[in-house]
Amino acid sequence: MRIMVTGGAGFIGSHLCERLLYRGKHVAIVDDLDSFYDPALKRANLQEIGTRGAYEFFEGDIRDTGWLREVFKSVRPEAVVHLAARAGVRPSLIDPALYVSVNVDGTVNLLEQSRQHHVKKFVFASSSSVYGHYNCVPFSEDDRIAKPLSVYAATKAAGEALCFTYAHLYEMPVICLRVFTAFGPRQRPDLAIRKFAELIEQGKEIPFFGDGSMARDYTYVSDVVSAFERALESDFSFAIFNLGNSRPIRLDYMVEVLERTLCKKAILQHLPVQPGDMQETYANLDKSRRLLGYEPQVNFEEGMRLFVDWFRRKK
After folding, report:
1. How far apart are the C-alpha atoms of 299 and 212, rounded to whole Å?
2. Which residues form the catalytic set?
3. Which residues of 3-29 are buried (b: 16+ CB within 10 A; e: fewer)?
4. 163: closest CA among 235, 227, 112?
5. pLDDT at site 172
6. Which residue has the higher pLDDT, 279 or 102?
7. How far is CA 214 from the centre of its chain?
8. Where are the alpha helices (DSSP H) in the chain?
9. Are 126 and 179 contacting, i.e. CB atoms less than 8 angstroms apart?
10. Residue of 123, 217, 229, 314 with fewest CB within 10 Å of its CB?
């Protein structure tokens, strides 16, 4: 199978590409290596992927229709996994137009090229942030997502809506996977666990928002990758699935486990809760287990140990 992975040089994307190459798939990576974080980290990820096998790499912007059309002509993908996105809740409040441009216009561009080139499966990386305001926990796929709390969340909700439209109008099978706070080796440096680990190692203060009760359903990256594999192998005309651990982890407990695993004490800089942040994310996995066969294998504490092992090795 020929599989195009957008954002394949990133955190989740690089792990997925490695897994697909290991499975003997033909992989084409599309990534613009943007400067949201150091492009050298993404180039290092590409080198790691290369240890698993040969792949094609196309550097460019998914919003560039002419360029993207030529990439599709060259690759002739049977499946597209769309992970490329402008990420982050708080940065989306600073530059909302950029987030809409990349995450909405870019997704439309990919869906349209996939339609024109008869792609057999489109897998869209969505986010737990779409659940937004007024939903009861644990979050279920049938919950309303009409009240996102950030521009980033709104763009992911829009992406899901566009995916449904293309699946409905053009009978192109589409699966949307709502990822709940992925973590593990190669995690982006702006994400809490890696950011906190760096600051604790340097003896610097970590930004601690609120009273510590904010909670996230952390999901280890290998479990996320396994779910994407299952999505590629599945047979749905359109479906949405949660990818979490179904176990919210409080901020104060996350810091405690990180301290224990690093064997170093954190210095807390107490700050107010930030606009756009959800109080809690918590995945109901009933549908994912029943229809996708998804079952997380790595709990939070073990995942944190694996992350710290990688973090210490890379230094």
Report:
1. 20
2. 152
3. bbbbbbbbbbbbbbbbbbbeeebbbbb
4. 112
5. 97
6. 102
7. 20
8. 11-22, 39-50, 65-75, 89-94, 96-100, 106-116, 151-170, 192-201, 221-233, 251-262, 286-287, 300-314
9. yes
10. 314
Where would I find the H helices in 105-220? 106-116, 151-170, 192-201
Contacts of residues 46-50 at CB distance under 8 Å and 24 or more positions apart, as own/partner, are 46/9, 46/14, 48/14, 48/18, 48/186, 49/8, 49/9, 49/14, 49/17, 49/18, 49/21
**What would the pLDDT profile of 54-83 be if each residue is shown by its tens digit?**
999 999 999 999 999 999 999 999 999 999
The topology under which CATH files domain 2-181+221-245+283-297 is Rossmann fold (3.40.50)
Per the structure block, which two tokens stand in for 192? 């809490």
List, for residues 230-242, the tens digit of each pLDDT value: 999 999 999 999 9
Rounded Cα–Cα distance for residues 277 and 220 (Å) = 21
| β-strand pairing of 215-216 with 249-250 | antiparallel
Of 114, 46, 40, which Cα lies nearest the Cα of 78? Answer: 114
Q: What is the identity of the amino acid at 284? A: N
* Dihedral-angle region of residue 264 (phi above 0 means left; psi in -120 to 50 means alpha; beta otherwise): beta
pLDDT at 276: 79
pTM for this predicted structure? 0.96
Cβ(74)–Cβ(99) below 8 Å: no
Contact 71, 6 (CB under 8 A): no
